Amino acid sequence: MEPLAAEVWVTDPRLEYVLLVKHRVRGWVPPGGKVEPGEGPRAAAARELFEETSLQAELLDQPAAVAVRSYRADWSPTLGLSYAAIVGRDVPLRGEQGQQAAWFRLDAEWDSVFPDDRGRIRAHVNRLAAGRAAGVTE
């Protein structure tokens, strides 16, 4: 099976913040990881979100994005599916040991080996906001 990864772009209900985890090598990234054998990418995204933040959130119906990238220099390129969820910022977070979870303003910069993710996440949030303005539910 080809490498497959899944992550979750978690935003707050006002669409002003994104939840990120501090990876020891990659910097601040959305919660996510490898899709295990026999596991679907949506289930993997939800599992990784819970493991890395303690959040159990309903993922939005449509995936947010797709990317092909190498997560390490010695790994094959991996297909990554990004899902989305909306969660209140008042929900307690418990990151994995040594991997802090924190909310960042969407208009802020954060240190990541994937700097293009900032623009991708912001574009997705803009689509969500436009859908709300048009009366489309998540």
From TrEMBL:
- The record places domain Nudix hydrolase at 1-128
- A Pfam family recorded for this sequence: NUDIX
Q: Which UniProt keywords apply?
A: Hydrolase
Does the keyword Hydrolase belong to this entry? yes
Q: Which cofactor does it need?
A: Mg(2+)
Single annotated GO MF: hydrolase activity
Q: Where is the signal peptide?
A: none
- Does the keyword section mention Transit peptide? no
Please give the InterPro entries that the UniProt record associates with this protein: Nudix_hydrolase (IPR020476), NUDIX_hydrolase-like_dom_sf (IPR015797), NUDIX_hydrolase_dom (IPR000086)
The record, for PANTHER family, names:
GDP-MANNOSE MANNOSYL HYDROLASE, MUTT_NUDIX FAMILY PROTEIN
Name of the featured protein: NUDIX domain-containing protein
